[in-house]
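Quick one - inputs below.
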Amino acid sequence: MNTRALPLFVTIGIFLLAYAAFWLQFPNILSTRVVGNLLTDNAYLGIVAVGMTLVILSGGIDLSVGSVIAFSGVFIAVLLRDTGLHPLAVFMLLLALTTAFGAGMGFLIDRLAMPAFIVTLAGMFLARGAAYILSIDSVPIQHPFYDALQGAYWLMPGKGRLTLIGVVMVLTFALGMIVAHKTRFGASVYALGGGEAAARLMGVRQGRTTVLVYAFSGAMAGLSGIVFSIYTGSGYSLATVGTELTAIAAVVIGGTLLSGGAGYMFGTLVGVLTMGLIQTYIVFDGSLSSWWTKIVIGILLLAFILLQKGLLKLSQMRLAKGA
Amino acid sequence: MLLSIRSLTKTFPGTRALDAVDFDLRAGEVHALLGENGAGKSTLIKCLTGAYRRNSGTVTLDGAPIDPQSTAHAQELGIGTVYQEVNLLPNLTVAQNLMFGREPRRWGLIQTRAMRAQARAMLAGYGLSLDVDRDLGTYSVAIQQIIAIARAVALSGKVLILDEPTASLDAAEVRMVFDVVRGLREKGLGIVFVSHFLDQVFDLTDRVTVLRNGRKIVTTDTASLDRVRLIEHMLGRELEDATSHQALARGPRPPMLEFRGLGRRGTVEPFDLAVGQGEVVGLAGLLGSGRTESAELLFGLRNAHSGQARDQKGPLNLHSPRSAIAAGFGFVPEERKTDGIVADLSIRENIILGLQARRGWARPIPRAEQNRLADDYIRRLDIRTAGRDKRIGELSGGNQQKVVLARWLAMNPRFLILDEPTRGIDVGAHAEIVRLIHELVEQGMSLLVISSEIDELIAVSDRVIVLRDRRHVAELTGDQIAPNRIMQAIAAPYNQKERAA
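Output:
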């Protein structure tokens, strides 16, 4: 087995262990209601984490996504309020806009050879500022099509609701897995994260790949914004502050190496669900402050960073012995 | 002729890296390309792989003229390259590395099973039994090199350029790689082999081409070539016009420093070195023989794994340059531009840099004192400049070198290491630096001089130590310091008992 895959198994192990411990205390946790809610409540985070996974695999980072989600919500709400456009048309417009926004950041990162951190930090302020310009207040979304989207669910056995946005998240992860693991573009992303010089020698088109990676992340942030607007039924420029960091945490807890080149899309799904599970536990318990979520996430993150360092040492030692 | 290069010229601003070089490669031969630093090997290879565009000359492959525009283009034409490192991606599997960019697809999706099968087929005939699903990084460097060769051969298939492929391999691994290379020669590939290890050149190659200062010196059959002649070609010196030892005949020096068993695994074999007061020790050897590495151990730039240093008073601590400087050592590095000067600072600032670092930043050297020091050294070392506050980056190489020297002299070290002190400077400055070395020794300073130019070593050294393959192999004194003796010591093959003295 490759040591690269080990963090993924650890992630899955932790998730199952947490679920089991949870189940001992609250047997209800196995009900499809909890599962349905887990998917619904974390849909927007999961979708944006798909884009973030690809960015981090390529050795980059995208700090703009939280602001882009907020911008998306306000953009949809304002357009639906002020124009007669159908929501689907607004969605298309928005996705085109956020994809182009991501592509533009990718272009700058590549052409100016600037750190992704700085370029996407600028993008973060830009998107948040644009949201404020559209509206300072929370704008409610009232449209029959939205009511239909919000009400769409499939009743699972045991009365759990598999909502539309939950399904969208699962489908997005399926798409992410295909892109990352089954396409030449995905292979190029791993190659860039593994080492730019070697990747270029092997024929990776660095510029094109970088632009596409950030365009993909922008598209995912737009989709996440749509899902978030369906989830909350409004658009608010102060929403999802810090979501980019939560997404990064989910990616790392999912076993992806923060420096790029190693990780799995499925791991990110497990990472998102693990974080959701902690939140659910705190709700079930009732006596704990919800800030405990942050503490547990912090501990988990630290544990994973240590795990990855340890694995690196281990594989180097094994190589030294074997060679 | 498989590949034929005629009067290829490549110039960079200020230098002519390649001057009308001819080179021929037959199908089914391994052709060594040799030369010291700056000889033009890398430039020639980069012109072949499309990394550089040549200024003039023709390159024909299989009789058709070619002009590679990029690495990928060169590969399409049939020229593949394997470098010393960074060829492939350690974080991808063996199969992914081999098939990268050519993965079998259906509906745009990579067919993993077919990819695995094709990767295995590519590795057939290389005598490896690998799990193609394992990450490349879990295999040893030798196997990674063979996989890189397999990929390059599959992609290009006519010419294979191996640019120091064995530099980080041990003896058994080198044999493994060589077996693969011989197999490819049987198959009719033309292979260009660049290496600093002469034993490997004699072991593997059919013909040798030597470059020096951008010119082709000779192409000949390896079997008919004698080691000493080869080294003469590389270092550019005829034995006939041997100059005698020019260093002033002086009596034995009082001992000052003593190093015992200093060594570092994979870098330099443990060596002993004693340096007397006012003595000049020369280090001779080819590029990659461990000269610079030895100096870096002495100066604490690299930490030794074994050995100790002591002077008349007791043991010395040399675990970092800072402690070496405290012990009275100085080091003028080979790479003047990157390791020596701070190009954006003035001459004055460059000179006082070391002195100021020793005083600590809390106690700045007064400006008047700085000016006095700078003017003093500009005069004493005859640094040609419009003034002390000129940017050092604007000076010529020889004058930059003098400023770096001045920086150390200002600190008055007792032991100064000069790594290639005359590299890339003109003849006039060259003579001045040799004169300066004599002057410093008169004042009682001890020097360690590393140089590829045997004449220079002969001119300045009281004692010459010869290195080969990361080992100190000979020590020459007195009348033994002559070009033929030095070259013989450099050239002597392995497993021959040698300790000239």
